[in-house]
Amino acid sequence: MSAIATKTYESVPPLKVAFLGLGVMGLPMAGHLARAGHEVTVYNRTEAKAQAWAKEFGGRSAATPREAAAQASIVFACVGNDDDLRSVVLGPDGAYAGMQRGACFVDHTTASASVARELYAKAKEAGLDFVDAPVSGGQAGAVNGALTVMCGGEQAVFDRIRPISLAYSRAVTLVGAPGAGQLAKMVNQICIAGLVQGLSEGIAFGQAAGLDMKQVLDVISKGAAQSWQMENRGATMVDDKFDFGFAVDWMRKDLSLVLDEARHNGARVPVTALVDQFYADVQKQGGGRWDTSSLIRRLR
Known about the structure:
- This protein is α/β, with parallel strands linked by helices.
- It has helices at 26-35, 47-57, 65-69, 82-89, 95-98, 113-125, 138-144, 155-165, 180-208, 213-220, 228-238, 248-265, 270-284, and strands spanning 16-20, 39-43, 60-61, 74-77, 104-107, 129-132, 135-136, 147-152, 169-176.
- The strands form two sheets. The chain has a six-stranded parallel beta sheet. A three-stranded mixed beta sheet has the order 7-8-9.
- It starts with 15 loop residues before the first strand and ends in a 16-residue tail after the last helix.
C-alpha cells in the first residue's frame, strides 16, 4: 500500500530533485514529487528508510546530503529543527557542498526565521538560491498532497519552485523576504493554539452541562464558531482519542520558536504563552506524542 494518496498533478517538465528528511511529512512529500514525474534522490539519517522509499517510488537513495544534492535543480528538506537543518545543509557532507551554482534549496522545516536568513545568506555566497517554506496541513495534508506552503524569498526564485512544490500542495504562496515564511508559520501556530484551547474549554463545558456534544458541535460548526479544528478534531476530542495527528512535542517546539521571536520583536502573546504551559502539562501526563487536541485532557 502506497504511503501517498492518489492525486492529479499539474503538467510540469520533469527535473532532477533531491529530498532530505523522510519523516512523517517528508516521506509522502518526496513520494508526490516522484509520482509527478520528477527524478528524485532522497537522503535520510536512517539509511534503510531512504532505501525503502526508493524501492517504493522508484527513485534513488544517497548516503549523504551532499551526494543527494549533486546535479539536483532543487533540493527540498523537511527535518526537525534549526540544528538538524544546519547538519544537512552545511559542512563538507552538507547539501550546499554538492549543489551546482544556480540550484535552489527549499526548506520545509518549521524552524526559526534567523536560521532561514542565515542559510539564505550562505546560499548567496555559494551562488545558490534559498527559500524558507514551512508547511501547514499535518501528516494528512502531506499524504493527500494538500499542504499549504508559506514561502520567504525572492520572487523570481519562488516562481521557479512553485510549480514543482504543487506536487504535494494545494497552495504555495510567497509572503515576503527570506525568513517571512517561518514568521507566517509562527502566526499559524499562534492561531491554532488559541483555537484548540477554546475548543477544549467549550467541549468540557458542554459535557459538564450534560449536552450531547457531538450534536452541539454539528450545530455550531455551521455558524460563526466553525473552524478546521472543530470539524476535524471536535468529535475525537469528545471521544477522548488522541493517538494520531500533530504531536504535542512538535507543537511545543513550534511554540518555543514563537515565544523566542516574540521576545525579540516585542510582540505580546500572553494566550500563546499560557497554552504552551498547558501543553507542558499534557507532556507530564505522558501525552508528548498525542495529537494537539489532547489539551482537553487537562480539563477532565
